[in-house]
Amino acid sequence: MTIKRLLLMMVAGTFAVLLVGCEKAPDIASPTCADLDKITDPVKKEELLKTCPRSGSGFKPSPKKSY
């Protein structure tokens, strides 16, 4: 009887944990740096430019070094 009760509690606990983890996915998509050319909203584009490394056409290569 104790093993059945323990097994039932484990199944119920696992089910409860799985149910708690199920939430609706957010509706707002997070744009990536690859989507930078597709964004037309200037405010969102400016925010994305701040977070993307090497964004824009102002990329300058490092000077050549000889060791």
Characterise this structure.
The protein is an all-alpha fold. The protein has a domain at 30-54. It is built from two helices and no strands. The longest helix has 20 residues, at 2-21. It is elongated.
Shape: elongated
The sequence of SSEs as H and E is: HH
What distance separates the N and C termini? Answer: 76 Å
Beta-strand segment tally = 0
Instruction: Report the structural category.
Output: mainly alpha
Please compute the radius of gyration using only Cα atoms.
25 Å
Q: Sketch the major β-sheet.
A: none
Separate helix tally: 2
| Mean pLDDT across residues | 77
The helicity comes to 40-55%
Low-confidence stretches: none
Beta strand %: under 5%
SSE topology:
Blueprint: H1 2-21, H2 42-51
Q: Quick summary of this structure?
A:
With 67 residues, the chain is mainly alpha-helical. It is built from 2 helices and no strands. The longest helix has 20 residues, at 2-21.
Keywords:
67 residues; mainly alpha; 2 helices; 0% strand
